């Protein structure tokens, strides 16, 4: 691809992501802004009902609870920004963790078990890509199919039983802390920083936005769209596998019932709430982070306020509808003629 064509795509991408409005209005239009406002409002309400909500230990627990969804959301968000979609991440989360923990429980070195789990996640991503790209199956159908296949294989691998016990050294990875900060939070920060740099500071990130924003234009400008799609599906699978192993280390078991449809829906919801557009091209890792924290805050606030957990789905559903509506308005503003 020529330097001129790359620069043109970069300019087009920048225009799609930058509202043609004054700075203050631009800030107000960002999804992260109103999400943070919602987080603050919920925190204040929860604190009024139960002052323990603002306890430092509880705040750490909120962050710890958001990490799994955030890590999975990083890979899923990059894929959606690039114009793809993956509903199999919850099942990849499960099968990768079961493969990794099964090996570790049988005496295989921890590093080897973790790498095996990541390989399973990457393989699942490759399979999704092949089905979507070469069989021309719509992403939502293709990944729903692999979702059920992966869940079925998960049950076959372990006979429907959880993988226990696990070595203490492995569990320390999920239960320990460094500088008084839980390891799982450090993992989230590291993964988030890497994905932020990839999306915002690399040529690959620019190309991802270009493919998601206008696939035909990207092809016409010489971008290797098929290769980009492959990398994105693999990253979505690998981040699901990373989250699965972190979760297993934290709870001390490879759980057959962990993951599944509930995790998939929460991850997709967090990504959309965080400002990633289903139409592709738009979104940020910081928005995904705020979306994950918001979901964790809602879940924790309902528990602390002793509100029945059934209301969780009602609140999350309402916020999701609002997020999609805001995305529609935002795209209208971005593409409004000068």
Automatic annotation (TrEMBL):
UniProt cross-references to CDD domains, sorted A to Z: TM_PBP1_transp_AraH_like (cd06579)
UniProt key word Cell inner membrane: yes
Entry keywords, A to Z: Cell inner membrane, Cell membrane, Membrane, Transmembrane, Transmembrane helix, Transport
Transmembrane regions: 33-50, 62-80, 87-104, 110-132, 139-159, 179-199, 230-249, 261-280
Statement: the UniProt record of this protein carries the keyword Transport: yes
Coiled coil: none
Organism domain of life: Bacteria
Membrane topology label: Multi-pass membrane protein
Localization: Cell membrane
Protein name, entry field: Autoinducer 2 import system permease protein LsrD
């Amino acid at each position: 691809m020529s330097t001129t064509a790359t620069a043109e795509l970069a300019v087009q991408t920048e225009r799609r992501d930058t509202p043609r409005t004054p700075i203050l209005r631009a800030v107000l239009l960002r999804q992260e802004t109103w999400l943070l406002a919602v987080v603050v409002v919920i925190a204040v309400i929860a604190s009024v009902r139960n002052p323990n909500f603002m306890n430092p230990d509880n705040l750490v627990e909120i962050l710890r609870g958001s990490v799994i969804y955030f890590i999975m959301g990083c890979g899923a968000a990059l894929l959606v920004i690039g114009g793809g979609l993956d509903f199999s991440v919850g099942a990849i989360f499960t099968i990768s963790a079961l493969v990794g923990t099964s090996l570790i429980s049988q005496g295989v070195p921890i590093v080897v078990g973790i790498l095996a789990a990541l390989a399973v996640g990457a393989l699942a991503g490759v399979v999704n890509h092949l089905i979507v790209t070469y069989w021309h199956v719509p992403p939502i159908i293709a990944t729903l199919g692999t979702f059920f296949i992966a869940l079925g294989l998960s049950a076959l691998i372990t006979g429907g039983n959880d993988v226990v016990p696990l070595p203490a050294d492995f569990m320390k990875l999920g239960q320990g802390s460094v500088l008084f900060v839980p390891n799982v939070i450090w993992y989230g920060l590291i993964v988030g920083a890497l994905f932020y740099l990839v999306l915002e500071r690399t040529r690959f990130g620019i190309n991802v936005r270009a493919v998601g924003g206008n696939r035909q234009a990207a092809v016409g400008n010489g971008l290797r769209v098929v290769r980009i799609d492959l990398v994105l599906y693999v990253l979505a699978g690998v981040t699901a596998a990373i989250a699965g192993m972190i979760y297993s280390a934290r709870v001390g078991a490879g759980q057959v019932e962990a993951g599944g449809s509930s995790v998939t829906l929460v991850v997709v919801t967090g990504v959309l709430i965080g400002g990633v557009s289903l139409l592709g091209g738009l979104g940020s890792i910081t928005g995904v982070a705020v979306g994950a924290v918001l979901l964790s805050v809602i879940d924790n606030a309902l528990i602390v306020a002793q509100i029945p957990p059934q209301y969780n789905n009602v609140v999350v559903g309402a916020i999701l509808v609002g997020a999609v509506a805001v995305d529609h308005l935002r795209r209208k503003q971005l593409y409004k003629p000068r």
